[in-house]
Write a structure and sequence with these properties.
Elements: H1 12-24, H2 27-46, H3 50-69, H4 72-94, H5 96-107, H6 111-124, H7 129-146, H8 151-160, H9 163-166, H10 173-182, H11 191-198, H12 203-218, H13 223-235, H14 242-249, H15 258-278, H16 290-296, H17 299-318, H18 326-339, H19 341-360, H20 363-373, H21 381-396, H22 399-417, H23 422-439, H24 444-453, H25 457-484, H26 489-518
Helix pairs in contact: 1-2, 2-3, 2-19, 3-19, 4-7, 4-17, 4-18, 4-19, 5-7, 5-15, 6-7, 6-12, 7-8, 7-24, 8-24, 8-25, 10-11, 10-16, 10-22, 12-25, 12-26, 13-25, 15-16, 15-17, 19-24, 20-22, 21-22, 21-23, 21-25, 22-23, 23-25, 25-26
Length: 519
């Protein structure tokens, strides 16, 4: 199947999927229609005759889906999700989650402490965003439930400390991918040096983390999130998925705190060791440090190894002590895999939609052409690049694909038009890319965050969207200031942070006033 230049039509499939998802509140059918619309566009442009178009539409959709699902790394992600789902159910049925929740409720004595602890755990698990999303949700759900924190708020905290923390962590799967792309600039002594140079100017990531901490401490929620928190506070409805509630209702009381801590710690330790192993740290004499190993690792394969080893540890911990019988343990694994079926389907469809846009309809080439043909003042280059990257990543649901497409273009533009803005322009590319990965309905980390939190996917998207849009708007302000001040970090980051804090305060006051009027 040969790719075609579909022009403006290439952005229609993700737009259709996103609009339908918001209107119908049903993401699987929306993604499927987005995939089929992209296949239809390809079939109409590439073939003649109604019968040929119809046949080619279906063939393109499912051949692309098969090719995407056939990717070893993507299959490993689906396998890891299934293993993690199994681990969650096993630990829950053994009583570990409930015991940890009871213990943490005594140690974390307020809702603020519970939210900050969730944020801190998200920041600590910086190696991989997939690993982050599901592990933080698994560990912190019992704690946040104890303090009446809505699942929407939990999903937001998880999501905002996943990709945003990975994109500014020098030791992570993201750092290697970004560094290898940034090396094309030829201005840095190493991939790591190029990556580190962009960190202070990655305003979206930095502001997202500041936003999370601010909301945890001040509780200045607004928009749909304020309604979700008000619902949880006044009715006790946390927004838990029915399937998750059913599992929690079956929980015994004989589990101990270490019945949660040991399996989760095993997952972390074995995953890290597996990343080092697949990265050649133990086998390749040319890999001499941890950064090289993490950069060279197969993170998806490592997570599968970590998930399997954690299940083995859980078996050895629970079955001999008769917390679960052998039959109950195996049935729990089946239940856990079933609980991840919806997330797996959504991921496959999201990957397929992204593949159709990038590999079939050449969405990236169309965006590249628009950027190169546009003429605008040099000072606003970083801000414009941020907007383009944000739009592309939101439409395709991928950060890695976005910066992979845009970085060579940005290097070319900055080198010829504004060399002094090279670093901030590259940082704007990464920041815009993270925006879509953070909040797009078809982003894998957005899907995994709602899954990890046990929250309805569309509810998560709709509640966090105002927060993400506000952070993006303030980041845009920061890049404007950076462009007009020759990349002055203090002025640009300061302007972005102050603008965000002021906006959050005012929006919260407006939300509280509206609540008072209704009462």
């Amino acid at each position: 199947m040969e790719a075609i230049q579909a022009g403006w039509l290439s952005i229609l499939p993700p737009v259709i999927a996103i609009i339908l998802a918001f209107l119908t509140k049903e993401v699987i059918s929306s993604l499927m229609l987005g995939v089929l619309s992209g296949s239809l566009i390809y079939a109409v442009l590439a073939h003649d005759g109604i019968m040929m178009v119809a046949a080619k539409t279906v063939e393109t959709a499912f051949s692309t889906m098969g090719g995407t699902g056939g990717s070893v790394s993507k299959f490993n992600i689906l396998l890891f999700l299934s293993l993690l789902g199994a681990l969650v159910v096993v630990v829950t049925k053994a009583g570990g989650s409930k015991a940890y929740g009871n213990w943490a409720a005594k140690k974390l004595r307020s809702q603020t402490a519970a939210q900050l602890a969730t944020s801190a755990l998200g920041a600590l698990i910086f190696i991989d965003d997939y690993f982050n999303c599901l592990t933080v949700g698994t560990v912190m759900r019992p704690v946040t439930d104890k303090y009446g924190i809505s699942r929407e708020k939990l999903a937001y905290i998880i999501d905002a400390t996943a990709a945003p923390i990975c994109i500014i962590a020098p030791v992570s799967s993201w750092a290697a991918a970004v560094g290898s792309n940034l090396s094309v600039t030829g201005q840095f002594e190493s991939d790591l040096a190029a990556f580190v140079a962009t960190i202070p100017f990655n305003f979206y990531a930095v502001l997202s983390l500041i936003m999370v901490v601010t909301l945890c401490i001040t509780k200045w929620d607004f928009g749909p999130m304020e309604k979700a928190q008000y619902r949880a506070r006044t009715t006790g409805d946390l927004g838990v998925d029915a399937s998750q509630e059913e599992i929690n209702n079956q929980v015994p009381t004989k589990g101990k705190v270490y019945d949660l801590i040991v399996p989760v710690a095993s997952l972390i330790v074995f995953s890290i060791l597996a990343m080092l192993y697949t990265g050649g740290y133990f086998t390749d004499p040319e890999i001499t440090n941890l950064q090289q190993a993490f950069g060279n690792c197969d993170s998806s394969a490592a997570l599968v190894i970590g998930g399997f080893c954690a299940l083995v540890v859980a078996f050895c911990l629970f079955v001999p002590r008769k917390l679960l019988s052998f039959k109950e343990f195996m049935e729990s694994i089946t239940d856990g895999v079933k609980s991840m079926a919806s997330a797996n389907v959504i991921l496959v469809l999201a990957w397929t939609l992204g593949a159709i846009c990038s590999d079939v309809l050449c969405t990236g080439e169309y965006v590249k052409q628009i950027v190169l043909e546009s003429s605008f003042p040099i000072a606003i280059i970083p801000a414009v690049i941020f907007v383009v990257a944000a739009f592309l990543s939101f439409s395709t649901g991928t950060a890695w694909g976005t910066f992979g497409i845009l970085i060579p273009i940005v290097v070319e533009i900055a080198a010829s038009a504004a060399p002094e803005l090279m670093v901030v322009s590259l940082a704007a590319t990464l920041a815009g890319s993270v925006f879509g990965d953070h909040c797009s309905p078809i982003s894998d980390t957005t899907i995994l965050s709602s899954t990890g939190a046990g929250c309805n996917h569309i509810a998560h998207v709709s509640t966090q969207m105002p927060y993400a849009m506000l952070v993006a708007a303030c980041s845009f302000v920061g890049y404007l200031v950076a462009g007009f001040t020759d990349s002055n970090l203090a002025f640009s980051l300061g302007a972005a942070v102050l603008t965000m804090l002021a906006a959050v305060f005012m929006l919260h006051k407006m939300a509280v006033k509206k609540e008072a009027q209704k009462a």
